């Protein structure tokens, strides 16, 4: 397939592009200038003409370009880049017969990560059917972009997959590793994250699976690691920090396993065949450094 990766020069994009290039012809659309030797379109996803040019002749698009976390001073950009960018990608996909869309959504669509006042899940683990109450424009535009996919896909014969990525762990970035590891000593620091994470290489795996997914027309999946970043059993974290949660479910062995994640990845496992390969314990050498 010929695949366009928007935001393909970013932290996730680089790893995704490398993984997809083994099987597909890959083009990149990014506001940044790409290195020589890569097929890059320089352009902004909020510009419909730039998106249309890059989408010509593609079979699929992986849409990563976005402001990747919440910036309180950049509200207008969230609408322009995160929301309108997705709209432009879907419009171009429909007009140019690009049949597949893999969208990088976020667990921020549920609202727990950046809440202003403590938000408590209705039940645990949080699965795809859990109510979504985004608590900032980042989470809101991620959820709205999924809803755009949902509105376009059945009507126009697209197959769209939204991947609700956990907070991504880049193992080669020491600061990033230190931040996650700080939750081991001080679990309260990971509480609004629900101690959740995903290795960037597993994100690339999920994207590749999303591209080959033949179901649809639009499906959303949590994509995370298969454990929590904690030295204690998951139920101890729940008891200590989320005792208000009314219902604990046995999704993916949540009640019987020692350290299951608090965002369930059972659906991605079952439907996409997703199998996370990398976990925080592999990174001990960074922690020791
Ligand atoms: N990093 C995380 O923890 C995380 C978690 C969940 C979801 N996501 C999503 O994954 C995607 C990629 O995130 P990342 O961490 O690689 O971010 P990043 O900032 O490292 O990469 C984003 C890339 O998109 C490009 N870009 C930004 N605005 C653009 C625009 N208007 N037009 C074209 N290109 C533009 C940037 O130049 C960059 O190369 C985002 O959609 C983000 O919301 C990230």
CATH homologous superfamily grouping: NAD(P)-binding Rossmann-like Domain
Residue share in β-strands? 15-25%
Shape: globular
Give the strand tally: 11
CATH level-1 class: Alpha Beta
Class by helix and strand content?
A: alpha/beta
Biggest sheet, strands in spatial order?
A: 3-2-1-4-5-7-10
Low-confidence residue ranges? none
Sequence of secondary-structure elements? EHEEHEHEEHEEHEHEHEHH
Q: Could you give a short account of the major beta sheet?
A: 7 strands, parallel
Radius of gyration: 19 Å
Count the helices. How many? Answer: 9
List of distinct ligands in this structure: nicotinamide-adenine-dinucleotide
The assigned CATH architecture is 3-Layer(aba) Sandwich
The portion of residues assigned to helices is 25-40%
Distance between the termini: 42 Å
The total domain count is 1
* CATH-defined fold name: Rossmann fold
The pLDDT mean sits at: 95
In short:
With 289 residues, the protein is an alpha/beta fold. Helix content is 37%, strand content 16%.
Would you write up a description of this structure?
The protein has 289 residues and is of the alpha/beta class. It has a single domain (2-169, 199-226, 264-276), classed as Rossmann fold (3-Layer(aba) Sandwich). Helices cover 37% and strands 16% of the residues. The chain contains 9 helices and 11 strands. The chain has a 7-stranded parallel beta sheet, sandwiched between helices. Strands 6-11 form a two-stranded parallel ribbon. Helix 1 packs across helix 6 and helix 3 packs parallel to helix 4 (137-156). The longest helix has 22 residues, at 75-96. It starts with a strand and ends with a helix. Residues 6-7, 9-13, 30-32, 44-46, 64-66, 68, 81, 85, 104, 106, 165, 167-168 line the site of nicotinamide-adenine-dinucleotide.
